[in-house]
Amino acid sequence: PPATRVHYDHDFHLLIARGTHNAQIIDFLTYLSQQIAPRLQLGYVLSAALKDEYFDRIHAEHRAIVDAIERRQPDAARAAMRSHLLNSLERLRALAHATGRKDRLEPKPT
What we know:
By secondary structure, the protein is mostly helical. The protein is built from four helices and no strands. It has helices spanning 2-20, 23-35, 48-70, 74-99. The radius of gyration is 15 Å and the shape is globular.
C-alpha cells in the first residue's frame, strides 16, 4: 500500500542518518516525518499507474545510494544522496503545484 512505501522511504533515510552518527540529522528527519509524511497523500494526485512509476524512480535512487555505500565509495554515496534529495524536492514541488499548495514549497525570493 502507498502508506507503506512512504514509511519505507522515511525509514530508509533514517537508517542512513543513523549511520552518520549525527544526532542533528536524526532529529531533523524525525521532525520531518511528523510534518511531511502525514501530508503526502498521493492518492489524491497520482493515478495508480503513475504512483508505481513514482515509487520505482525513488527505489532506483535509493538503490544507487545503497550500492555506493556497499562499495565503500563515500563520494559516490554522497553524490547519489544529493541527487536523490534534489529530485525529492522537485517531486514535492510538483505535488504542491498539483494540489494548489505551491507557495509552501517554492524558494523565497532574495
